[in-house]
Amino acid sequence: MWERGLVLSAPGKAILHGEHAVVHGKVALAVALDLRTFLRLRPCAEGRVCVRLPGVGVLRSWDIPSLQALRSGFAADFDESKPPSVEQLDTLREFAGIAAGATAPESLATLAFLYMCLAISAKYGDVPSMDILVWSELPTGAGLGSSAAYTVCLAAALLSACGAISCPLKEGESTARWTEEELTLINSWAFQGERVIHGNPSGVDNAVGTWGGALRYQSGKITPLKRVPALRILLTNTNVPRSTKVLVAGVKEKILKFPAIMNPVLDSIDAISQECQSVLEVMSANPSPEHYPLLEELFDINQHHLNVIGVGHPSLDRLCRVTASHGLHSKLTGAGGGGCGITLLRPDTSTLAVEAAKRDLCACGFECWETSIGAPGVTLHSSSSLKAEVLHALTES
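Above: the chain's sequence. Below: its structure in token form.
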């Protein structure tokens, strides 16, 4: 049972193909990154709920009677099928001392925690006295699904604490996952947390965090891919800030200005997503080295398309040039205009080549992680299954 404490994690996400085209009804493939957010849940001193998010500087604690009074004061009912109301969020901001319109990560993370804590306890029974600590391998604000990994972890922890889902980790097991029905419940509450943070999210990030692997997204429909090969990648953050909203508007403007030119490019990006899905499905059933050149070519073609639609950036061109000099293939992932890129690593790519590429990318002022895609979704862990760095972060903070 959770009274002995729980540790769970959820992955970040990257877009493999379909950026921007997805806004116009085309297929996008989203994949789980094996860079994870970890949450430790422990019982604490009677009558308090504590949350600590050292990555964004949050250390908050509330007594349970105050939270119960706050919950009973809400006019609107909590319901995971309806977005949080403006009134509910205003009340929570006032309670937590968060200024109206505050968008800093610490403000939004605190607001999401309070909303999910009150909403889940209203539906499934009181949240007990507990201490929650969250630590992440994911950078915030880089378009890698860090907020969704957080809300997925929170949903799983709070639902476990209220007894709405089981604690499936058995004695002697290193990791465990929930049933499909329980994952669906975790996902629906994680989506509510994402609504608090982002207003009107697509639901892709929390679905990837919940189920892991890869999923196909088109016109609001999310379909998990049955099996996905775990592909090694380099993930590079150019550290160039960008506005997704401005980039999306720029693509729309180009489409309106040059429809006969731009619509075929979007159709081609759609075809790349579908071709990539086919290759991944064949690879998971029958892996072969001959699939990697196909995936590399799709990366190259899509990167050119993304430059054509206006979401490239000199920093991303530089990233592609640096990795190409080491025989590697890269593309932007996410909104573009800076942000992050992904580089495919073949199974036979030597450690020396990877280290040399990482060194050259870091020399450009970029941050670099060697990781994989197709990682598992939200997972319960025994302490013995955790890397030393994670254990240290969850015990020292």
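The mean pLDDT is 92.
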